[in-house]
Design goal:
Chain B: It holds the Pfam family BPD_transp_1. Chain B: Keywords: Cell membrane, Membrane, Transmembrane, Transmembrane helix, Transport. Chain B: It comes from Micromonospora costi. Chain B: One of its GO terms (biological process) is transmembrane transport. Chain B: One of its GO terms (cellular component) is plasma membrane. The structure holds two protein chains of two kinds. Chain A is built from 19 helices and 14 strands. By secondary structure, chain A is of the alpha+beta class. Chain A folds into two domains: about 220 residues, Periplasmic binding protein-like II (D-Maltodextrin-Binding Protein, domain 2, 3-Layer(aba) Sandwich), CATH 3.40.190; about 200 residues, D-Maltodextrin-Binding Protein, domain 2, CATH 3.40.190.10. In chain A, a hairpin with a 2-residue loop joins strand 5 and strand 6. In chain A, helix 9 packs across helix 10. The longest helix of chain A has 23 residues. Chain A is globular, with a radius of gyration of 22 Å. By secondary structure, chain B is mostly helical. Chain B has a single domain, classed as MetI-like (MetI-like fold, Orthogonal Bundle). The radius of gyration of chain B is 24 Å and the shape is flat. The two termini of chain B are about 30 Å apart. The relative contact order of chain B is 0.13. Chains A and B meet through helix 1, helix 3, helix 11, helix 18 and helix 19 of A and helix 3, helix 7, helix 13 and helix 14 of B.
Chain lengths: ~450, ~325
């Protein structure tokens, strides 16, 4: 249903033990190769060498996968000496598979990766630096949004070239709004509008803003609100978790109060807030940009999407981004690396078609084009790029974020007060961060 | 999980070869001494490669901070084990919470999974029209994968949109029970779904056991005037003792290895209260790439299960004597 994001539904069956054993054995012969340097070719301007075959891995299992493949075949026909082949896996399997495959020499040349995975894979030596691609192609922050461009940097080196970004958007059911006497073409944009609308909805018998206790999507809504209220999840160096700050507690309390005030039922199940929106039982929900394509498949639902309303003191929205990375190879093949860079640059320039798959292109020139502006729904969320709250580039952050989402779960299910849940979460998160510092040595 | 089964199997197998070797020595002499080992060799090779070596590797991993992708994997001695028992470590709380969750699930599910299928098997063993159909019906859920039953029941049990609460509401019962997001309801859901899902498997095993009990024993009991209950108590149950031992052991191990149900149906909620040990080990080992810590947890968990299995074997052997 929601194909993105790694921490989700890690559906590992019985094969897991065998898989782990296999990768461990492979590691015996694959470890310790640190020789493949980044400097190869001219950084992606063009490629004139002998014909090379490139393997690319991604996790685009939805409709976006087809669009990606179409783009790749277009690239292949325009480049006689480069042949890119694509393999698609579930993101969950993909992130588990990639390190073992790379160190045994069976990995891809190019890997698509979420921004919050870059630091972990860079620290673990799976992917290689791409600073020269950025320099040669004269790609700078100005070509992208600063938020998404900075996210590709770990330890002052660039590891990812951003392809797109996928933020949380504000979805609303127009028919439900109409029934409550609200203007369906004017979704609330401020805290006052939002609560006023909820009051109207309540009068018409609708609980208007269902709060999911799970990462998808209540946790990500809370993530956005922490930043909206002026807080942050971590301090600047990501040494300490700060999601028990007054601002974060305030944000959490605001969400839990939605349940207490009857704007949301308690015990909302996974995906229930979204299904309720589609079936007219819920009016508002924050969900990922990827739901646009799903909603387009339901013509009987009258819906709209807008940037998140500003509940706190500043606009902010959870977001993540797909990045291109180049995988370190056991045997360094300069031709392959330089051909990979040509591909990455080409695809980044042609990311308009990718936008049709339901993602905001990272490249500014594409976002400014008239063609992109014609994509109403995806385009509606493009402004969020300016203030998107991407996860910081720190290795091993996945488990810490899970702790964050679990604290919210406890608060949203009423097991603990917001303050208590977040305090407990922070003290665990700090231990995890300390563990990670020891492990990755930063 | 394989480790423990292997341990159990090795225990069961060990005495006979030794005894037969001793007998051979006295009668046949030198020529036959190797024979039993040659017969054992194919299994021994498989056991060594897929049983013993991984266990040893696991022990070795558990003494390191091991991320196979990082160049330095320092030896940490027993730190990975100490962490599990010292309350100020990052994993202590999560680890014991997952042990507690697994224990609750096992204690609640095993009795039901031993008794309910037995009842089913006794019923399905009688001859009545449509017997084959009902045998298939009760076995059917077992052929579904955990992903299928997990998603199915998560939607059925949803507190606000699910069919279960809807039906309860129709008959006038509370319609807002949080089946998958609060305890103790989440435990009832997990255990209920598991019983529904896997009872058929145990029932089939019981059924095979029941068909092995000679009909003459029942006839003799009847002639002696034994009631239906007495026939069940004094003929069926003793006849099923080896099958019961098997069902008990495999069910305990299977329940202790619960992963998919809580991963998909409750997703650990509330908080991480329903996160099982195997799930936590998978997270540590594969998401957080700390194979050393995961290996230490696996070994501690395997030891716990070994103790339970030993107790189980003892219990049944004692009864036999």
């Amino acid at each position: 249903m929601i194909p993105n994001e790694m921490s989700r539904r890690r559906l590992l069956g019985l094969g897991i033990g065998l898989g782990a054993a296999a990768t461990l054995t492979l590691a015996g012969c694959g470890g310790g190769d640190d020789s493949s340097g980044p400097a190869a070719g001219n950084g992606g301007k063009d490629y004139t060498g002998p014909k090379v075959d490139l393997k690319l891995w991604n996790g685009f299992t939805g409709g976006d996968g087809e669009i990606f493949k179409t783009l790749v075949s277009q690239f292949n026909s325009e480049h006689q000496n480069i042949a890119v082949s694509v393999a698609t896996y579930q993101w969950e399997d993909y992130y588990n598979k990639l390190p073992g495959a790379a160190s045994s020499g069976n990995g891809p040349d190019i890997a698509v990766m979420h921004m919050d995975q870059l630091a972990t894979f860079a620290a673990r030596g799976v992917i290689t630096e791409l600073d020269d691609v950025a320099t040669t192609l004269e790609l700078t922050e100005a070509d992208f949004a600063p938020t998404v461009w900075k996210g590709g940097i770990y330890n002052n080196k660039r590891y990812g070239i951003p392809l797109d970004m996928h933020p949380l958007g504000f979805y609303y059911n127009k028919s439900v709004m109409e029934k409550a006497g609200l203007d369906p073409n004017k979704p609330p944009t401020t805290r006052d509008d939002f609560t006023a609308a909820l009051t109207e909805l309540k009068k018409s018998g609708v609980q208007g803003f269902w709060i999911s206790p799970f990462q998808f999507t209540g946790g990500m809504s809370f993530y956005s609100l922490v930043y909206q209220f002026g807080g942050s999840l971590f301090d600047a160096e990501v040494n300490k978790a700060t999601f028990n700050s007054d601002q974060a507690v305030e944000a959490c309390t605001w969400m839990v109060d939605m349940i207490k005030q009857g704007h949301s039922p308690s015990n909302v199940g996974q995906d229930a807030e979204y299904l309720a929106l589609k079936s007219g039982k819920n009016a508002f929900t924050f969900n990922g940009i990827w739901q646009i394509n799903d909603l387009k498949k339901s013509p009987d639902v009258q819906w709209g999407v807008a940037p998140l309303p500003q509940i706190g003191s500043t606009p902010a929205a959870w977001a993540n981004s797909h990045n291109f990375t180049i995988v370190k190879q056991r045997a360094n093949n300069a031709n392959k690396v330089s051909a990979s860079k040509v591909f990455i640059n080409w695809l980044s320039q042609h990311s308009l078609d990718w936008a049709k798959g339901g993602q905001v292109p990272a490249r500014k020139s594409v976002r400014d084009s008239a063609d992109f502006k014609a994509l109403t729904e995806v385009g509606a969320l493009a402004p969020e790029l300016e203030y998107a709250a991407f996860p910081p580039a720190t290795p091993g952050l996945g488990e810490v974020l899970t702790t964050f989402y679990n604290s919210f779960n406890e608060a949203a299910l009423g097991k603990k007060s917001p303050k208590q849940a977040l305090d407990d979460g922070v003290s665990k998160a700090n231990k995890q961060l300390e563990d990670n510092r020891k492990k990755y040595g930063s | 999980m394989a480790d423990v089964i292997e341990v159990g199997a090795a225990r069961g197998d060990a005495p006979p070869p030794a005894a037969s070797a001793a007998r051979r020595r006295s009668s046949a002499g030198r020529g036959g001494r190797l024979t039993p080992y040659l017969f054992l060799a194919p299994y021994l090779v498989l056991f060594t490669v897929f049983g013993a070596l991984p266990i040893l590797l696991g022990v070795w991993l558990s003494l390191h901070q091991w991320d196979f992708q990082l160049p330095n994997r320092p030896f940490v001695g027993l730190d990975n084990y100490k962490e599990l028992f010292s309350s100020d470590s990052a994993v202590y709380g999560d680890w014991w919470q997952s042990v507690r969750a697994t224990a609750i699930f096992t204690v609640l599910s095993v009795p039901l999974l031993v008794v309910v299928p037995l009842g089913l098997a006794v019923l399905l063993n009688r001859s009545f029209p449509g017997r084959t159909f009902f045998r298939a019906v009760y076995f059917a859920p077992y052929v579904l994968g955990v992903a299928v039953i997990g998603l199915l029941w998560r939607f059925l049990l949803d507190a606000n949109l699910g069919l279960v609460n809807r039906l309860l509401g129709v008959v006038g019962l509370p319609a807002d029970t949080p089946w998958v997001t609060d305890v103790p309801w989440a435990w009832i859901s997990l255990v209920g779904v598991t019983v529904w899902w896997t009872s058929g498997f145990n029932a089939v095993i019981y059924l095979a056991g029941l068909q092995d009990i000679p009909q003459e024993l029942y006839e003799a009991a009847k002639v002696d005037g034994a009631s239906a209950w007495e026939r069940f108590r004094h003929v069926t149950l003793p006849g099923l003792r080896p099958v019961l031992l098997f069902v008990m052991t495999t069910t305990i191990l299977a329940s202790a290895n619960v992963f998919g149900q809580s991963f998909l149906i409750t997703q650990g909620a509330p908080g991480t209260e329903t996160r099982s040990v195997v799930w936590f080990i998978v997270e540590e080992g594969l998401r957080d790439n700390d194979a050393g810590r995961a290996a230490a947890m696996s070994i501690v968990f395997a030891l716990m299960l070994a103790v339970v299995s030993l107790a189980n074997f003892r219990l049944f052997r004692y009864r036999e004597d």
